[in-house]
């Protein structure tokens, strides 16, 4: 299964299993290294999914006429004058 096709939930579940196995301390060195490598792959899959989700998030703002609109969430952008960000 290609990494990019693994769903976030499955990757996170597998990552949690790997962490438990490694924390158990019962694996041989070779198996520990393989589990660690797989864990890194699962962490990257999760990170990729989270980055993609973050790009889709939008914030709800009120324009000068009081109408609600959405715009991409970008914390580095200063708020435009006349637009109030809603508290939710």
Task: Give a quick summary of the entry.
With 88 residues, this protein is of the alpha+beta class. The protein has 2 helices and 3 strands; from the N terminus they run ααβββ. Strands 2-1-3 form a 3-stranded antiparallel sheet, with no helix packed on it.
Overall tally of structural domains: 2
Spatial sequence of strands, sheet with the most strands? 2-1-3
Overall SS class: alpha+beta
Query: Judging by the overall fold, what is the CATH architecture of the largest domain?
Result: Orthogonal Bundle
Helical amount among residues, as a percent range? 40-55%
**CATH topology of the largest domain, what is it called?**
Helix Hairpins
> Low-confidence segments, ≥5 residues, pLDDT <50?
none
Describe the secondary-structure layout.
Blueprint: H1 8-24, H2 29-56, E1 58-62, E2 68-72, E3 84-85
Antiparallel strand pairs: 1-2, 1-3
Helix pairs in contact: 1-2
Task: Note down, in words, how this protein is organized.
By secondary structure, the chain is an alpha+beta fold. The chain has two domains: 54 residues, Helix Hairpins, CATH 1.10.287; 32 residues, no CATH class. 51% of the residues lie in helices and 14% in strands. It contains two helices and three strands. A three-stranded antiparallel sheet has the order 2-1-3, with no helix packed on it. α1 packs antiparallel against α2. The longest helix is centred in the middle third of the chain and has 28 residues. It is rod-shaped, with a radius of gyration of 21 Å.
């Amino acid at each position: 299964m290609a990494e990019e096709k693994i769903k976030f939930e499955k990757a996170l579940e597998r990552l949690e299993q790997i962490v438990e196995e490694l924390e158990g301390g019962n694996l041989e060195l070779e198996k520990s290294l393989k589990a660690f490598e797989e864990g890194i792959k699962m962490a990257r899959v999760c990170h990729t999914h989270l980055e993609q989700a973050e790009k889709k998030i939008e914030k709800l703002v009120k324009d000068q006429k009081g109408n609600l609109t959405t715009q991409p969430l970008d914390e580095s952008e200063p708020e435009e004058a006349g637009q109030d960000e809603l508290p939710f």
